[in-house]
Each structure stands twice: as C-alpha cells, then as structure tokens.
Task: structure prediction
Amino acid sequence: MATIVNTPAQGNTDSGSGMGMVVGAILLIVFLFVFFVYGLPVIRSSMGRGTTTPQVNVPEKIDVNVNQPE
Result:
C-alpha cells in the first residue's frame, strides 16, 4: 500500500508591512507634483493660451521718392 503525504499549504508569507503601498503612494505624489509644475505649463502654452501675437503698425501713407536730385 502506498503512503500519500499531503503537506499543508504554506499560507501567506507576506510580513504585512505595507512598504510597497507606501513607496507607490510616494511615487504617485512625486509624479503628480512634476506633472503640475512642468507638464501643465507646457500643455497650456502649446494650446495657444498665454502667448501674445505681435502687433504691427502699418502707416497709412508711405512717401517713396524715386526721383533723385542731380
């Protein structure tokens, strides 16, 4: 007759410290900070807001004298 040995399940070997969640939260906060400081101004400037168009003043009459005195 054969003997069958069933080993019990190991169970959860995680220590339960939650360090991965803390590191993930810190990385998320850093990413959001960098996005708000650098990303949003770049997106806003590329959408045309915040840029000014140059204003060119053209005179109504231009006096061009092509006859040169001798």
Remarks:
- Helices lie at 19-46.
- The chain has a mean pLDDT of 82.
- Residues 21-47 form one domain.
